Amino acid sequence: MEKSIVTVNTIVIEDDMKYNGETVLTYKIEYPEFKSSQYQMSIVAINTFYKKKALEYQNYCENELFKTAVEQYKDDIENNFPVHVFEALVVYKLTYNIEAPGCFQLNEAREAAEKYLPVFRHCQHCRADACGIPGKGDLSSLLYETNDIPQTFSHG
Q1: Does residue 155 sit within a domain?
Q2: What does the pLDDT look like over 128-154, one tens digit per residue?
Q3: Which residue has the higher pLDDT, 90 or 126?
Q4: Total number of domains constituting the chain
Q5: How many Cβ atoms are within 10 Å of 150's Cβ, its own excluded?
Q6: What is the residue range of 48's domain?
Q7: Beta strand segments in the chain, E
Q8: pTM of this structure
Q9: What is the per-residue pLDDT across 41-70, written as a single tens digit (0 to 9) for each?
Q10: How many degrees, rounded to 5, is the angle at CA 150 between CA 129 and CA 145?
Q11: What integer pLDDT is reported at residue 112 of this predicted model?
């Protein structure tokens, strides 16, 4: 069995924003980008999430925060105060367990346990092993790497 390798790169978005030739705002956003030959649906979803959050914050910096920094700059100059540069920093930290089992390992453990007792997998009734909002659509294809999860448990 080939061990799954997931690599993580750090993407950096940064800029020094100027008004009248003076830097009034600097921002730096660091977010992860995952790469792997496996788990493509999950990788795309996670990367899309982090990129969207980073771009939303970049938009906030370049539009709302920059306007505030310019107003502060104008007030500082008008009142003969030292100009203070606004600084914004966002770093998305990864907190994951590199030793956590993947779908394949979980399935192996479940199959071994099924020799002795029934194993709970994906319950259609209580949806305890599901993702999304019950009754609003089945998102299990985003949770599992395969769609052939046997339905081995039901309350109803």
Answers
A1: no
A2: 544 555 556 655 566 555 555 555 444
A3: 90
A4: 2
A5: 10
A6: 7-91
A7: 7-19, 22-35, 86-91
A8: 0.59
A9: 888 998 999 999 999 999 999 999 999 999
A10: 65
A11: 85
Task: Report the distance separating Cα 152 and Cα 111, nearest Å.
Answer: 12
Determine the distance from the C-alpha atom of residue 111 to the mean position of all C-alpha atoms in its chain, rounded to a whole number: 31
Whether the Cβ atoms of residue 86 and residue 68 lie closer than 8 Å to each other: yes
Of 31, 62, 91, which one is at a domain's C-terminal end?
A: 91
If asked whether residues 110 and 74 sit together in one domain, one would say no
- The residues facing 26 across adjacent strands are 16, 87
Paired tokens of 142:
């985003």
154 with 125: CB under 8 angstroms?
yes
The answer to whether 17 and 23 are in contact (CB under 8 A) is yes
Give the Å distances, CA to CA, from 111 to 69, 102, 107, 145, 147.
Answer: 60, 14, 6, 17, 17
Whether 152 maps to a domain, the answer reads no
Domain assignment present for 2:
no
Q: Is residue 19 part of a domain?
A: yes
Contacts for 69-77: CB closer than 8 Å, 24+ residues apart = 69/17, 69/19, 69/24, 69/25, 70/19, 70/24, 72/24, 73/19, 73/20, 73/22, 73/24
Q: Which residue has the tokens 């069995």?
A: 1
